[in-house]
Amino acid sequence: MPFAAALPLQSGAAIRDYSLSFETYGRLNAKKSNAVLICHALNASHHVAGVYLGQDKSEGWWDNMIGPGKPLDTDKFFVIGVNNLGSCFGSTGPMHVNPDTGRVYGADFPVVTVEDWVNAQARLLDALGIQTLAAVMGGSLGGMQALSWALQYPDRVRHAVVVASAPNLTAENIAFNEVARRAITTDPDFHDGHFYQHGVIPKRGLRIARMIGHITYLSDDVMNEKFGRQLRESVRREGAGDYLFSTQEVEFQIESYLRYQGDKFAEYFDANTYLLITRALDYFDPARTYGGDLSQALARANCKFLLVSFTTDWRFSPKRSREIVKALLDNRCDVSYAEIDAPHGHDAFLLDDPRYMGVVRSYFDGIAKAVAA
Amino acid sequence: MPFAAALPLQSGAAIRDYSLSFETYGRLNAKKSNAVLICHALNASHHVAGVYLGQDKSEGWWDNMIGPGKPLDTDKFFVIGVNNLGSCFGSTGPMHVNPDTGRVYGADFPVVTVEDWVNAQARLLDALGIQTLAAVMGGSLGGMQALSWALQYPDRVRHAVVVASAPNLTAENIAFNEVARRAITTDPDFHDGHFYQHGVIPKRGLRIARMIGHITYLSDDVMNEKFGRQLRESVRREGAGDYLFSTQEVEFQIESYLRYQGDKFAEYFDANTYLLITRALDYFDPARTYGGDLSQALARANCKFLLVSFTTDWRFSPKRSREIVKALLDNRCDVSYAEIDAPHGHDAFLLDDPRYMGVVRSYFDGIAKAVAA
Question: How far apart are CA A207 and CA A199, in angstroms?
Fold first, then answer.
């Protein structure tokens, strides 16, 4: 959907003549009271659920969660998935033309924040004629957007579902982002972010960035369970379980997995988008303007909340979710909180844990009843 | 010290005409019974302690631990520091000439293992006329060497002091090593490990590798305490605490710290050495030939042990040290174990925690009494 009018950004810049890709699932009811907005994290898009024509199975990133009869039931709710500004899956991003210069944005794409994304999403709802969301929901960086919705548009959200998220990044979180960004920006093919016109892609950097990311998405436990110290099948066949004694060959299964993930990612993800999205993560910190006092920062919130965290998530640990819960309770907000004992680390928010799915299902069942009443 | 005779390596290869750099502190007693060998980790050398002529202060990496009147007291012990084969601080490594070809080794330097290092160290002791070590001591990868000494030369070691170490790497540990190696080997300046003759250094890769390493050396807690979400001084002055809204500028203090560490490291550390040492870490696994049974693997050990771990060390967590302790106890070995409640993560093994220092001091005091008796 095209938006001609300039969107003012937190940085002081603005972006105009941009477009947002979105998808909807289910039907908006007559009162327009059953809309649920889904916010995505780093590597995801507006294609949240469902199967495209000609596809065997869904490539929607939350298809296990959203659909007819699923925890977020599209027989009851009108679900909206939107690709964020600066992303690389359809909405206006660094690979598109800057109307002010007639040239591809590249590194000149304006820095966008979680707050900016929420403002852009609100404009999309305006265009769709939706004043109030039954719920806004997201995991990880998507959860930050859900939280920010509750603060920026307290009267337009009835429920916020914040999964595997945090009130801001820790120094360690920022550190991992910084290493990933440095891998990209120091790749000679990055060309200061204007690689498009050189006909190259900084794939080396993107691969490293993705490998680092993957380590932080998984728990130590699940990595040991899935890969442990196992050698690759081909290696094992050769030498009766013996090492290759090589510093560069892929020998352990975990190496093979990471390289595969890195290679795949570098084929489709945009390097400038990676920088933009990790920086939006770094910057998110609603307590910042309140001298670090999260309770004060969340005082504006006016909706009900469900927070979910996962015990083995060391990226956005349960401790971080509990900080949000505490700050909301300080403000006498209505908060449900589930800490799911799941082995998969941060990735758990995308996976099929029955307790997790059950918690979300029953929360949305409650919303559905209120909507129907 | 030069060694002409070929040293057979675990890989089946051998290395000849190599040299080991070493330093000694204190005096060997008449019975030659007070020698302590110190084994180093990734980024360290034979220069363990003491001040070189013309230096203001010690650049020895364990100078807080070793010296006159210090926990490992060089008034009582004869301490030997040795730089390992393949390292880049004096002993023969990838930057030296391969006597078989007359060309610089580069990536052709043979893959060396913890076991190979221990064999090379044993030859050095032979040359020094030392049959039996009062103790062998190391932290991290150095602790693996100390443990391996107890298995490879059970009759030549009386005590093994294994600090912040592990019986092998987890999948996550290997994963971090692999990302660091990929950053180096995919740097266009790496030239398949033969960058020396191109007159370049893969500094981009080395910087990334070091940044990743540093994240794993620190605890989340200490990172938050030291850096938190603080912005750099220069940034703070400009905009009253506001963000720069830039994806590439150094803005948070943690970014500045990591870049500095990366830059510094890339100036002096050898890229091929980085690959060799991380691979030695990956390969170390004494239980491997015993079907993963660590108790069986440690049955050969014949010395007494002190193990130390640090609560916030998530690289080699206390759990990993406890695995070693349990396996030693299964073999009715004499084991002391201290789990130090320190905030500094893996780095703690190099720092001045008084409880840690106290534990090591009293352990060596006990050895000193036995040696003197």
Answer: 18
